[in-house]
Amino acid sequence: MVKTNLLFCYLLGLITLFSACSKDDGKYDELIRLADVKLQEAIKLAENQPCKPVEEWRIDTLSYRYVPVHPSFEKEYNALIKEYRNLAEQASKAYKPGKHDPIAYNTTPVILPPNFGLRCKEGKMIVASAFDLELTEIDQKIENLLPQIRDFFKDVPCTDASKWNILTIRKDCEFIPVAYTETRELGLFFKKTEQLNHLNYARYHKTGKECPTQNPNPPKGIICKDGHPTLQ
Questions:
Q1: What is the pTM of this model?
Q2: Where are stretches of biased composition, namely Basic and acidic residues (predicted)?
Q3: Over 60: is that where the pLDDT of 10 sits?
């Protein structure tokens, strides 16, 4: 009789434990679902706004996209985003990895492409990507960016060639090698080159022009000459 009672208690304990685990899993799934509902409500709110003067808007950066925000609905938008983040945080705490699941709940944001400001498109305010720009606008931005990138490190003295590297940028089908080195402004340099890459990609898409993907005459290295990096 004692053994029967112990077996019953053991089985009851297993059932309770299994129920608790299932409940935790269900809690995580439900919190993730509710968080996404709030996020989509915030995005829908921002996407369905008529155009107003560009200077009145700001750009909000979410984990996987940009959102145009205007003071006329900002309070409601911020409340939805706050609810979304609270629910996502609760979901992270409730996450119970299974045997084949990753140990940690992944909250790493997506690396977003560069944006090119706000504009009115088809009666709605959008955060523009390179593909939203007209070809003439793309060409103008490329022309503005190229000298900024080429001359970015012109005032940085070259005393040790081993500390310099080469990055190849494009202008139409032309390969342009640029020498760069580690400075406090290196992040800005890469930001500009990323903008250029997206503009070039959008340009190829709009024109249909095909260009070689590899530089037939890449530079062999860098030397320091008269205090400046010189490509060989």
A1: 0.77
A2: 223-232
A3: no
